[in-house]
Amino acid sequence: MKKVILITGSSTGFGALMVRTFAKEGHMVIATMRNVKSKNAQFAEALGALPNTEVVDLDVTDDASVKNAVKAVYAKHGKIDVLINNAGIYGGGVLEGYTLPQIQKLFDVNVWGVLRVNNEVLPLMRAAKDGLIVTVSSQVGRISLPLQAAYNASKFALEGFIEGSHTELMGQGVESVLIEPGGFMTEIISKAHVNADRAGIHEEYGAKLAEIQQHMQEVFTKLFTEAAPDPQLIADAALRLVNTEKGKRPLRTPVDPSSKGIDVEYNNVTEEIRKRWISAYGLVKI
Ligand SMILES: NC(=O)c1ccc[n+]([C@@H]2O[C@H](COP(=O)([O-])OP(=O)(O)OC[C@H]3O[C@@H](n4cnc5c(N)ncnc54)[C@H](OP(=O)(O)O)[C@@H]3O)[C@@H](O)[C@H]2O)c1
Fold it and tell me: Strands, E, within the chain: which ranges?
């Protein structure tokens, strides 16, 4: 059955690929992005020209923008079957080098942005007793690498929110699940990042941190230029989740080809332990 699918942050990267993938499948796609009439006008025009695709302005950091966008979609289509929380920004640098406002900026998009959109869409999905929410987290929402701890923490926060609410939503007819991409060469790499903003801290850490940074740069450059996993894998994973029978969707879908299967192994092992741990309390059956 064709669904109404709303995607946040669809100007570039995974979001744009998801729009194209769902449109090809004949779904009604609401490709949302900020700055539709200015910075992202060319992306809006390209996606808006696809069949059964509408571009809607939505900035996940702006309450009114989120409310207006969701209201307009419900007024026109009467429902949102699938919400994909994809919008996100990256940030790097030693944790101590961040001021709190800078970390708050990162969280405003990656974490509060997701909650803003969910809080508008969830009441309507619950009323319909139907809906799927897919949130794009990251492998660094499971393992925290150095020199990007603030970004990683924003994804860990998402993991905590969604894991808890996944169980809350049982019985509401709504499923909320996560996709966890590994490293993929998308536009996120070239965009302005919300980096550590306190001058001089990084240098104070000296040679050991410089060595870690140098090594990470080499590893990621190699990953993006040589292995270069295809970002379409993430759009395909989102499509698989949409096509999976309701009630059978896994809480987490790790997609990190560079990990050579360790991502899936980690998920399987932790999921098994999580279930045993929760049942040891006898609180809820999951
Ligand atoms: N690429 C990776 O290796 C990787 C790995 C794990 C997870 N992820 C996650 O995957 C998601 C998509 O990232 P990507 O790699 O496809 O990067 P991308 O090409 O930069 O896409 C990110 C999207 O988010 C949008 N966005 C940023 N701030 C926004 C805001 N305030 N309101 C609405 N949209 C906003 C961007 O729009 P603008 O163009 O207007 O900024 C862009 O459309 C993100 O959540 C990211 O954290 C990426």
Answer: 4-7, 28-33, 53-57, 82-85, 131-136, 174-181, 252-255
